[in-house]
Amino acid sequence: MEAMRLHEPADIGEAPLQREEVARPEPGPGQVRLKVRVCGLCHTDLHTVEGELDLPKLPLTPGHQVVATVDARGPGAERYAVGERVGVAWLYWTCGECDYCQSGLENLCPNAQFTGLHADGGYGEYMVVDERFAYPLPGAFSDAEAAPLLCAGIIGYRSLRLSGIQPGQRLGLYGFGASAHLAIQVATHWDCEVYVFTRSENHRQLARELGAVWVGSAKDDINVGLHGSVIFAPAGWIVPLALGHLRPGGTVAINAIHMSPIPEFDYDLIYGERILRSVANFTRQDAEEFLQLAAGIPIRAEVELFPQTAANEALRKMKASEIRASAVLEIGD
Ligand SMILES: [Zn+2]
Ligand SMILES: [Zn+2]
Known about the structure:
Blueprint: E1 2-6, E2 17-21, E3 31-40, H1 43-49, E4 66-73, E5 85-88, E6 91-93, H2 99-102, E7 113-114, E8 126-130, E9 134-136, H3 143-146, H4 152-162, E10 170-174, H5 178-189, E11 193-197, H6 201-209, E12 214-216, E13 226-231, H7 238-244, E14 246-254, E15 275-278, H8 284-296, E16 303-307, H9 311-319, E17 326-330
Parallel strand pairs: 10-11, 10-13, 11-12, 13-14, 14-15, 16-17
Antiparallel strand pairs: 1-2, 3-4, 3-8, 3-17, 4-5, 5-9, 6-7
């Protein structure tokens, strides 16, 4: 089978992913082998190939927004029939035994493994995964539409939850890429007033189309206090500005696995019981809740398709904010 493989991280401009022939994986106990149809691109893939994350496995096939069909079942795997369509997301495996796993916080499991980081992911034609970490996908979505829901969508949903935002309240979204363009659809479904802060004219246009009541820059004054907000851009300088837009008692949730340093700021910005918190991964419950909600709204992901072999180019365009919403690779033939 063919896969786009990472041997050594490098700037995406140097095209670190190489097209390679590798052996098709065999499913172990409880695992299914998946024939990948499409795989969405995520900023975490970029942090992976550029080496901003520690890489426990090299060479590696990245990709963690995988839409696939079950191709074979390992011993004891019975949840899905061969031929069934499933999705795989960032959470590849958790131990089920630690304090976090046992208290509904498997996203913080210290033994967790992540798709396309600890295990080969969806930039290749086949992959294997524990069947408990594969999700049934609502029929309402095409393969390409379903892919961005699997990370951008799920983690955007968890971020909204952790921002504490309630229906009808004022929400801020900082950065407006793949995740935010899905989160805004959940927020407007909840009748929130959404303020979008982004520099990209492309992204501003999309935000207006999706119902933002205000669009501008993080440096702008908005003259009202936001009840909650989510920072999607991995830029630390935004944090004090987002706190400055927040009402007392509100929360800024940071949806980033990696962020540039946060500048020093005055205590006044966080006084008034404002909360600053990060969002780390998600749980299977988040995934299942979100996929149901997404089908019910229904959320529409705007996607730009690329062939599997164009993975480097697609990541480069994503880094340069040249993708209007979500980039998706079509895998195999
Ligand atoms: Zn655990
Ligand atoms: Zn992701």
